[in-house]
From TrEMBL:
Keywords per UniProt: CBS domain, Cell membrane, Magnesium, Membrane, Metal-binding, Transmembrane, Transmembrane helix, Transport
Organism: Desulfonispora thiosulfatigenes DSM 11270
Function: Acts as a magnesium transporter.
Pfam families named among the record's database cross-references: CBS, MgtE, MgtE_N
Descriptive protein name: Magnesium transporter MgtE
Subcellular location field: Cell membrane; Membrane
């Protein structure tokens, strides 16, 4: 790793020197040998906008399109504004339509119109169509640059068609088969098409069982399907089953990353890094305050429970020694279970068919942890305070806490999801507060029942 960093640093210094000495030919040769992601990183490392623009001007349109696709929208706009219109047109036309739509979708309307006018009319129409879909839907994620062939031609004819249309497609992992109404009726892999007999009809060799998504489907559902079925692209259809686009795995990876980041932010009750500063501040308050109020009220109720428990605590002071341990362990187990459950809900692993199994599994985990940890803390209580009854109370309370925490940590997110409350935001504060209360009730009840044996 260190050696690679040193190599990158030397390369960056070389590029800086070549930029300052205006050695275009040598610099072009170096850039053409680099991966476009590395070129993008190099461009960002230059910092100086003049140097960045100069480096971009040396790239051919295809490489420039790949490099710009890795950069933030604001920087892309700044760099493109330094280029002549014909060069901007050439770069945008080398980008997949879905990437152009994503880029333009983040700009004000005036800026969008300015860039759309630089595209050819039919390309601009395709990009505009993609921009009209909700950005979090399959339509907003798809590209219209795909390979489709009619069902009534031979494999040999299909390969001829591919030679004509494949260069303009984003991917040719799969070839989609349509009927005369442009409805999706099958799919065939490129490998299957090549190895089959040239005279075979596509209708006879295509796969009629395939996975597709509606153009209005949420992007998270799309990501789960691609992950579940291990496919490299998924076709998108409208309500009449007309093929309107495809979603490739590289876009799905971006969605998975985006959704995971969003869940992490929500789990922390905070905001996305893409919002404005004022929006961040307001979002943080709105998302955290309700559940912190729940936690505060729960804390007050816990205090009330402890108040009812004061006689036992006065009689056996040692009971108080174990309260932080019991509440802390219960909170940890509950948070662990809720994290696993929230993630399972997000990925689709927890669904109506697996809910009962998931709850039972986590409950048994809680019982197992409770038996192990309860035995250990009971032994510590006995050795420390010399009271078997105290050890029994603390051990049984630990067992009850672990079982309750694991069960509630699983059940609460599932219930929140069912009633339309975001489990990533609401689960943790609700669970920790309720577990504290239940744990104290269990502990005080056991202590009351066995108080005479501890005196």
């Amino acid at each position: 790793m260190k050696q690679r960093r040193e190599q990158n640093e030397r390369l960056l210094n070389t590029i800086r020197d070549l930029i300052h000495s205006l050695e275009d030919k040598k610099l072009k040769e170096i850039l053409e040998e680099m991966h476009f992601v590395d070129v993008s990183d190099t461009l960002l490392s230059l910092k100086n906008e003049k140097d960045q623009s100069y480096l971009l001007s040396l790239l051919d349109n295809e490489l420039a399109a790949d490099v710009l696709n890795e950069l933030e929208t604001e920087l892309v706009v700044e760099l493109l504004e330094n280029l002549p219109h014909n060069r901007i047109s050439g770069i945008l036309e080398k980008m997949p339509f879905d990437d152009v739509a994503d880029f333009l979708g983040e700009l004000p309307e005036e800026e969008q119109d300015k860039f759309l006018k630089l595209l050819r009319a039919h390309d601009a129409a395709d990009v505009q169509e993609l921009m009209d879909y909700d950005e979090d839907s399959a339509g907003g994620l798809m590209t219209t640059e795909y390979v489709a062939i009619p069902e009534n031609i031979t494999a040999a004819k299909a390969i001829e068609v591919l030679r004509d249309i494949a260069p303009d497609a984003e991917t040719v992992y799969y070839v989609y088969v349509i009927n005369l109404k442009n409805q999706l009726v099958g799919v065939i892999s490129l490998r299957e098409l090549i190895v089959t007999s040239p005279d075979s009809l596509i209708l006879e060799i295509m796969r009629k069982k395939f996975i597709s998504v509606n153009v209005c489907e949420d992007q998270e559902v799309v990501a789960n399907l691609v992950s579940k079925y291990d496919i490299l692209a998924i076709p998108v259809v409208d309500d009449l089953n007309h093929l309107v686009g495809i979603i490739t795995v590289d876009d799905v990876i971006d969605v998975i990353h985006e959704e995971a980041t969003e869940d992490i932010y929500r789990l922390a009750g905070t905001y996305s890094g893409e919002e404005e500063v004022t929006a961040k501040y307001l979002t943080a308050i709105k998302s955290r305050l309700p559940w912190l109020l729940v936690t505060m009220l729960g804390g007050l109720f816990s205090g009330h429970v402890l108040g009812k428990f004061s006689d036992q605590l006065s009689a056996v002071v040692a009971l108080a020694f174990f309260i932080p341990l019991l509440t802390g362990m219960g909170g940890n187990v509950g948070t662990q279970s809720s994290t696993v459950t929230v993630r399972g809900i997000a990925t689709g692993q927890i669904n109506p068919n697996t809910v009962i199994k998931t709850i039972l599994r986590e409950s048994m985990v809680g019982v197992s942890l409770g038996l192990v940890l309860g035995s250990m803390v009971a032994l510590v209580a006995y050795v420390w305070q010399g009271s078997i009854a105290l050890g029994v109370v603390v051990g049984l309370a630990m067992l009850g806490n672990m079982f309750t925490a694991a069960t509630m940590g699983t059940l609460v997110p599932i219930i929140f999801k069912k009633v339309g409350v975001d489990p990533a935001v609401a689960s943790a504060p609700f669970i920790t507060t309720s577990i504290d209360i239940v744990g104290l009730i269990i502990y005080s009840t056991l202590a009351t029942l066995l108080l005479n044996y501890m005196l």
